[in-house]
Amino acid sequence: MGDASRPQGVTARLHDELAEWGVRPGGVLMVHASLSGTGLAPVAVRDALLRALGPDGTLVVPAFTPENSDTSREYQAFTEGMTEREKAEFRTSMLPFEPNATPCPTMGALAECVRTTPGAVRSAHPQTSFAALGRRAEALLSGHDPHCHLGERSPMATLYEADAQVLLLRVGFGVCTAFHLAEYRMSPPPPVRTYRCVVEDKGNWTEYEDLSLDDGDFAAIGALLPHGLVTERQFAGKQTFLFGMRDAVDTARHLMSGYRAELT
Predict the structure, then answer these.
(1) pLDDT tens profile 194-238
(2) Rounded mean pLDDT, 115-133
(3) If we measure between CA atoms, which residue out of 60, 67, 201, 68 comes closest to residue 131?
(4) Residue 12 sits in which domain range?
(5) Is the pLDDT reported for residue 1 higher than 60?
(6) CA nearest to 30, candidates 181, 215, 145, 253
(7) Is pLDDT above 50 for 247?
(8) CA–CA separation, 242 vs 8, rounded Å?
(9) Omega prior to 55 cis, within 30 of 0
(10) Which helix (H) or strand (E) holds 38?
(11) Given this model, what pLDDT does residue 259 score?
(12) Of 139, 147, 186, 224, which one has the greatest count of Cβ atoms within 10 A?
């Protein structure tokens, strides 16, 4: 068959392999994905995931929006080299977060596809929202405290209670946002810091304090997870990982509470 049929073949293989990897029909699945270089349409990948989950399952993706914050790494990188006047003009032009409209370009094509699918639900946090499709979408994403990124008053804690699975599709543990919940639960907890973002209208900035989140050791933590907790496979030329969120977060909390405490 010609090259034109390849994306369809890979998508069909993804659907077949999801069950083989252990994705649970009727379950909750949070997905981080990179489709770059695969030729796959995000709609096709979304549909393969939803089909594997079945009519009672729920697909969740991070729909983060660091672009509307002046305390994010993305903002700092974007404004690097600007004069103070240029920074001020750029900051004034920044758009507010609107749950039903603000895109999430840094989260990848699949996340944006899920977010824009008719019937999708999105949580209300202006920087670390989630989007979901499926039977439990509303219940899982409601009540996201706008002053709590990924802790006990966020969907991350609800996903933990729901015994969600996490799929890292062609990405590594460095982007595994579930580990942030472990930061909230580690002992001692990280320090807090100030966050700012634009909400409702241009120029309407909100400021709040939350944990100083740090994903710098997430790849190393992922490498330390017991092999029995993680299913590791290759898909479209890159590593893919599937695991239960509860066990991974509990293990990460234990590890962080040990060596991070030694570093302070």
Answers:
(1) 999 999 999 999 999 999 999 999 999 999 999 899 999 999 899
(2) 98
(3) 60
(4) 3-263
(5) no
(6) 181
(7) yes
(8) 23
(9) no
(10) none
(11) 78
(12) 186
For residue 22, count other CB atoms closer than 10 A to its CB: 13
- The whole model's pTM is what? 0.93
Helix axes 109-116, 42-53, angle to 10 degrees: 70
Q: Phi and psi (nearest 5°) for 98?
A: -125, 115
Measured CA to CA, the distance from residue 264 to residue 262 in angstroms comes to 6
- Whole-number average pLDDT of the chain: 93
pLDDT of res. 263: 47
Residue that is written with structure tokens 């697909």 in the block: 59
| Matching residue, tokens 């596809």 | 113
Question: Which of 35, 30, 58, 55 has its CA nearest to residue 45?
Answer: 35
User: Scanning the structure block, which residue is given the tokens 């994306």?
Assistant: 7
Task: Give me the amino acid identity at 144.
Answer: H
Indicate if the alpha-carbon torsion angle 261, 152, 70, 116 is positive or negative.
Answer: positive
pLDDT tier for residue 2 given thresholds of 50, 70 and 90: very low
In whole angstroms, give the CA distance from residue 229 to residue 176. 15
Structure tokens, 142? 């409601």
> What are the structure tokens assigned to 251, written together?
């293990």
Return all residues near 120 (Cβ < 8 A) that are at least 6 apart. Answer: 114, 131, 132, 133, 137
Collapse the DSSP code of 29 into the 3-class scheme (helix H, G, I; strand E, B; otherwise coil) and give the result.
strand
Cβ-in-10-Å burial (0-12, 13-18, 19+) of 201 comes to exposed
Alpha-carbon distance 52 to 9, whole Å?
Answer: 16
How many domains are there within the chain? Answer: 1
